[in-house]
Description:
By secondary structure, the chain is mainly β. The protein has one helix at about 25-30; strands at about 10-15, 40-45, 50-55, 60-70. The radius of gyration is 15 Å and the shape is elongated.
Amino acid sequence: MAGDDSRPVPIIVFHGDADKILHPSNAKNMVAEGVDGSAEETRHVAVRAHTRTVTRGKTGAVLVELWLVHARGHAWSGGGPDGTYTDPPDRSHQ
C-alpha cells in the first residue's frame, strides 16, 4: 500500500481452525499480506469460541479483521442446513 493514494478497503476473514480443506494459516497469511499496521488479538468463548484479530492502520482505522472460529471445519458458521459447506447457527445458548 506504500505510495498508493487510494483508501485501503477494509477486509474481514472468517476461518475454522479445524478446516481440513484449507489450512487456517492461509487466512493468517492472507490478512498479513500488504497490511502495514498493528494487530491486537482477543479470545472469546461465547456461543462459538473464537479468536478475533484486528489490525489497525497508522490512523487507528480498522484495516483487517480475522475471525478464527474454534472447532469449526470448512463451513460458513451461519448458513442454513440445506447449503453446501454451511454450519447452521448454534441455538443451544438462546
